[in-house]
Amino acid sequence: MSLRAPYGRRSTRIARSTARWVLGKVGGGLFVLWAVSTAIFFGIRMIPGDPAEAIMGGPGSQASAEALAQARADYGLDQPLYVQYFGQLWRLATGDLGTSYSLKIPVAEVLGELVPPTLVLAVLALLVAWALALVVAVLSTRSGALGSALASGLEIVSAAVPHFWLASVLIMLFATALGWLPPVSTNAPAGLVLPVATLALPLAGFLGQVMRDTLNAAHRSPFALSARARGESETGVLLRHSLRHAALPGIALSGWAFGSLLSGAVVVESIFARPGLGRSLLSAVTARDIPMVTGVALLSAAAYVVIMAFSDLAERLADPRMAAS
């Protein structure tokens, strides 16, 4: 019997597993986008008010009945609800996000300008949260029971702090009292510090709790004891063995964390007057700008699906047993 046969069967099994994983992610992603678009379509129509008024400039525009009727006809709002629904699904499937009611420009063009500021904010917050969680987890494992208890308390407090309260405290302390940082977010690095800290600190609390427990378990595991028996130093055990296992839950949570950061951006961008998806979504909901709300929600959902897929892929690469299973 050839020795290549087992390797061939293993490669075939991994290829099939990878294909199932890819198809599952694509199918799950399409289902999420359909569910989000459907929920937004019916949900925003439950808000009191006439979308035609948003097209004409809002309730204060005092548009005539003829003008409102013409706006409904132009945007298909006079059609039956199921016709509007399937028409919207078809437009979204063909990549047409429509035109913003309030801005009168294509939604895709608006999103092109709003995505970079929010993406920079969310990515920086995720990196800072990861760094803080790792540092606290490593320090707490090396400082005994007292250090672990202090770290646990710090993580619980930071995870429980709401974004709007933390943002207000940071503004009063670092902008009003000390004058070190601007209270309004700008494109300058100093203008990013407070918004990033507001998003990163609560998330670091969640990640730190998970990573610290896993790091403690990895430190007491047989492979860590075996490494110490071979003469490995504590730093070597930490860097070569324990951190990899401790990072797995954090990697798995990164997709959820990114979605949490996008939702937190609605509050943070409004408080710090920073342009971005979150602030524009709040304005669009207030103005009943249906295409804008749908575009922002779908983009956020798509970003969440992609990040979840990448975090799952990173988890499979960090733990080969998942790819082989």
Structure description:
This protein is mainly alpha-helical and 325 residues long. It is 79% helix and 0% strand. Helix 1 (4-44) packs antiparallel against helix 12 (290-318) and helix 5 (107-141) runs antiparallel to helix 10 (234-271). The protein is flat and about 85 Å long. It starts with a helix and ends with a helix.
What order do the helices and strands come in, and which of them pair?
Layout: H1 4-44, H2 51-55, H3 65-74, H4 81-93, H5 107-141, H6 144-160, H7 163-177, H8 189-219, H9 222-229, H10 234-271, H11 277-286, H12 290-318, H13 320-324
Helix pairs in contact: 1-12, 5-6, 5-8, 5-10, 6-8, 7-8, 7-10, 8-10, 9-10, 10-11, 10-12, 11-12
Shape: flat
Tally of helical runs: 13
Helix content: over 70%
Protein structure class:
mainly alpha
Total beta strand runs: 0
Uncertain regions spanning at least 5 consecutive residues: none
Integer-rounded radius of gyration: 25 Å
Order of helices and strands: HHHHHHHHHHHHH
> How much is the average pLDDT?
80
Instruction: Please give the largest β-sheet.
Output: none
Oligomeric state of shown chains: single chain
Distance between the termini: 25 Å
The percentage of residues in β strands lies in under 5%
